[in-house]
Amino acid sequence: MKYTFPLLLTVPLTVFAGIYLFGDRQFLFISVLILIQAMVPFFFLFEKRKPAARELVIIAVLCAIGVAGRGAFFMFPQFKPVVAVVIISGVALGKERGFLVGAMTVFVSNMFFGQGPWTPWQMFAMGFIGLLAGAVFYQRKRNTVILVIFGALTTLIIFGGIMNPAGVLMFQPQPTREMFLLSYIVGFPFDLIHAFATAVFLFLISRPMLDKLDRIKTKYGI
Prior knowledge:
By secondary structure, this protein is mostly helical. Helix content is about 80%, strand content about 0%. It has eight helices and no strands. Helix 7 packs across helix 8 (about 175-220).
């Protein structure tokens, strides 16, 4: 936990540094910085536990599933399984790995969908959802209905709550309170679709994926 809290401070500071110090043009550089920051607690914890390569493989596979899922549903705006995969990662593997899977999935998938000033915001929003999922559900009894509700609410409130005002900050040199309010109003229907998609995918895939991950953790002593 002590390695996680600094991320909540350093990541937003890095995003704002990219906007105000680099003129919101070095988005790839800022994305890499955030990715490195997301890895810091991962490395600290792994150094203590001396992880095997199989742990790294599981994380890489979960990121790949998230990237593939986003690509497979590219024709359906906002209807993506990415948040569901990130939440499952946090639930199964813990908050630090959940944050890492969320941030890396966005960073890698945007290599196909397009990097931009939105990338660091998406990385932080998605990573934070993975972190929160791990903090709430890791090593606790899981209920599919509660997980579905959690996924819908976090997608609507956290991802939408971060990305809507981020759009104003990215494209408006002098943002006002009315602009932020309008961004929430305009973005709310899209956030609802995104939240609904997360709920649907969690309902369909959370139980089988979590069962498989539990079996892998037991079999390989992770």
